[in-house]
Structure to design on (91 residues):
């Protein structure tokens, strides 16, 4: 008897007309969308899990963490990153 763990699952979602038109020219839309979703999941904020907001408990953890860490803007790529306030990680 198969456990079903290796079966693919079909997921559908609605898109607006412009996105549907943009996807029309792609040869293998399923593969393209699958790769785009996997890529996006790899870039999800580890703290908020991509929601863009923090729960009350996450906020408390963040406040504690931020006491000893700060944002610094990279001079090369102009992106923010976190460093420990000890100064060892500063560029």
């Amino acid at each position: 008897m198969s456990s079903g763990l290796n079966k693919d699952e079909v997921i559908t979602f609605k898109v607006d007309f412009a996105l549907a038109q943009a996807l029309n020219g792609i040869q293998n839309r399923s593969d393209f969308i699958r790769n785009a979703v996997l890529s996006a999941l790899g870039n999800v904020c580890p703290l908020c899990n991509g929601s863009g907001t923090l729960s009350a408990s996450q906020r408390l953890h963040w406040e504690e963490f931020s006491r000893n860490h700060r944002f610094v803007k990279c001079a090369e790529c102009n992106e923010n990153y976190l460093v420990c306030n000890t100064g060892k990680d500063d560029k």
In short: Helices lie at 17-24, 29-41, 56-66. Residues 77 and 91 are 12 Å apart (CA to CA). The longest strand covers residues 69-73.
